[in-house]
UniProtKB/TrEMBL annotation:
Organism: Sphingorhabdus lacus
Keywords, in A-Z order: Hydrolase, Signal
Keyword Hydrolase: yes
Keyword RNA-binding: no
PANTHER family for this protein: ABC TRANSMEMBRANE TYPE-1 DOMAIN-CONTAINING PROTEIN, TRANSMEMBRANE PROTEIN
Protein name (record): Alpha/beta hydrolase
Signal peptide: 1-21
PROSITE patterns: PROKAR_LIPOPROTEIN
Database matches in InterPro entries: AB_hydrolase_fold (IPR029058), DUF900_hydrolase (IPR010297)
GO molecular function, one term: hydrolase activity
Length: 400
């Protein structure tokens, strides 16, 4: 009992990264980027051959070695790159390593490549923004998995901000996420204003929601056509964002009735089994959008008295005139969490994976969704007991 109690007390300290420092490293950062591969004047057709995924990053690159890599440090400029699926290598000495074949491009060439890829697929683009505790290899794996799982018909972009990839570095990640707001906002603004981009599907995970939502608000606010936007489909997986903030301010702007009628919608994947968001709630003091925790104990008691589970979700935006379309949907994955921390059900649970793939491709309803007393909240049908191999196959996940 004491061990469990101690773990609860230590949880906020673990997540906040108490006592964890970011080390500069043994090499001046300027030397890491001296090689022309980090700042090419023109594209190298050979270097980008076979690299079908697009990346935009504010991570500091390391171009000293044989393979270009991205560190967990900030850099002085946003860079544009192409990458191929990660590869596992076994050095003659040491542990296995994940290498992501990566090549930088001049910004203009990168945009031209994206345009050509988008024009082949009716102008659809998917943008993935990762969350806390990630490295570029880990998010590259997720990007490739999202592509395979959804079979998305268009180019896929990963926006990689300098998360540390460490359990004890939440505070550093949160700091870097806020530091990167302007970079991401500028990128999304440019992407959304291109005539050849007809539809943008945004997928964010965890802390990534706090980059995405304010940036979408900015794009909406500064658009020359306030009633239209090519940012149509926003998916927030386990969003680590204040639930009440979302209800009060964010939903009202991003899901304004005119935008919902123009096909804007947000789908949230939430789980009461999400351990990471439980610790985030302990740190921040208030519930997160991605966890249906009942902050109000009296509300929880009322739900139980009605024979319902004690789960409290973000409410829908209230409109003077109700939109003709559905703009806000929450998928409760509590009952289908497949092991782990419950923080990545959209890529780790068969039921959630299948629903996520459908949502990426525009599905608004599915027979596998179970209605709840809240019209905008749905649960998922459990597929029963499954093995890790079955989950990996269904979710298109590579098991190492």
């Amino acid at each position: 009992m004491m061990g469990r109690f101690s773990a609860i007390l230590l949880a906020p300290l673990v997540l906040s990264g108490c006592g964890v420092a970011v080390e500069y490293g043994d090499i001046p950062h300027s030397q890491l980027v001296e090689n022309p591969r980090c700042n090419p004047d023109k594209s190298d057709a050979g270097a980008i051959a076979g690299k079908d995924y697009f990346a935009v990053t504010s991570r500091l690159p390391d171009c000293l070695g044989e393979n270009v890599s991205l560190t967990n440090h900030r850099t002085d400029r946003v860079r544009y790159a192409r990458f191929a699926p990660p590869e596992m290598i076994k050095p003659s000495k040491g542990k296995k390593q994940t290498i992501v074949p990566l090549a930088f491009q001049p910004e203009a060439d990168w945009w031209s490549g994206l345009r050509d890829a988008a024009n082949l697929r009716k102008g659809r683009v998917l943008l993935y923004v990762h969350g806390y505790r990630e490295t570029f290899p880990s998010t590259a794996k997720d990007t490739v998995q999202i592509a395979a799982l959804s079979q998305f018909d268009g180019p896929i972009i990963q926006y990689s901000w300098p998360s540390q990839g460490e359990l004890l570095s939440y505070a550093v990640d949160e700091t870097n996420m806020y530091w990167d707001e302007r970079n991401f906002r500028n990128f999304l603004t440019k992407l959304a204003r291109l005539e050849w981009v007809k539809e943008i599907v945004i997928v964010s995970h965890s802390l990534g929601a706090r980059l995405v939502i304010p940036a979408v608000e900015y794009v909406d606010r500064t658009s020359t056509n306030a009633d239209a936007s090519n940012i149509s489909n926003i998916i927030l997986a386990s969003p680590d964002i204040d639930r009440e903030d979302f209800e009060r301010d964010i939903a009202e702007e991003v899901l304004a009735a005119r935008r919902v009628n123009n096909d804007r919608r947000i789908t949230v994947y939430a789980s009461l089994n999400d351990k990471a968001l439980a610790v985030s709630r302990a740190l921040h003091g208030y519930p997160r959008l991605g966890s249906p925790y009942c902050f109000n104990p009296f509300e929880a008691k009322e739900l139980v008295a009605k024979g319902q589970a004690a789960r409290c979700f973000a409410t829908k935006t209230k409109y003077e005139t109700q939109p003709s379309k559905t703009g806000f949907t929450i998928i409760d994955t509590t009952d289908v969490t497949s092991g782990g921390s419950g923080h990545s059900d959209f890529l780790r649970s068969i039921a959630a994976c299948e629903d996520f793939a459908a949502a990426v491709n525009g599905a608004r309803t599915r027979s596998e969704r179970i209605a709840t007393p809240n019209a905008h909240v749905f649960q998922l049908k459990s597929v029963g007991k499954v093995t890790k191999e079955q989950v990996a196959t269904a979710c298109k996940r590579v098991v190492e």
